[in-house]
Prior knowledge:
The chain is of the alpha+beta class. 42% of the residues lie in helices and 21% in strands.
Amino acid sequence: MDCRNCTNTECFINKYCLPDWLDYVQHTKISKHISSGKKIFTEGDLVRGIYVMCSGKAKVLFKTSEGEEYIIRIAGKGQLLGHRGLSEMMVYPISANTLIESEIAFISNENFFKLIRANKDLAFYIMMFFADELLRSEQKHMTNVLQSSNEKVAASLIRVINAFGYKKNETNKIDLGMSLQELANFSMISYPDLTNVLDTFCKEEIIEKTENELSVLNESALRSLARMES
């Protein structure tokens, strides 16, 4: 995907970089097509740059001391990956895998910092992005600690909608991008509990379930249950 004539209006590089700097990104980035289920980066790797999702879907994984992996974030086109490693240690504390075949642009630390210094709108966006990430992290922690299974699933579905949206030409069918087993992991509940919650949502006419596909019948009710406005 060429940054100079990119039509992806959701990409923060496209939105917030000046035209001359889009040309710079195009000539310095490294683009990769990565098949489904493959590693983008791994916990413990040195941070050499950041990743931009040009297309596709990805999941960010945290591994506990017991070796269990949990999905803590999902990312769709135009979104940033690898920023959690930008710290004094410059080592990734998490891993990222593709959920489907994806095109991903890698921008080195040196070039990313140049972009931030030269593009004030990009610098402001990155500042707000980190603030939002901290808020979402705190919200997810509170969800895991205090909320019911129904609220956890509702919050996870809203996060999927916010990241991936709905399938084209099917305005209420969630573009899930993951299996129901992965959705249970993302919701931090067991698969049987997820099944029970989805059945409850179907009875309450909040969603409709057909095999592994979910359609939203009442998004405002789902957001209210998730305690998330947007």
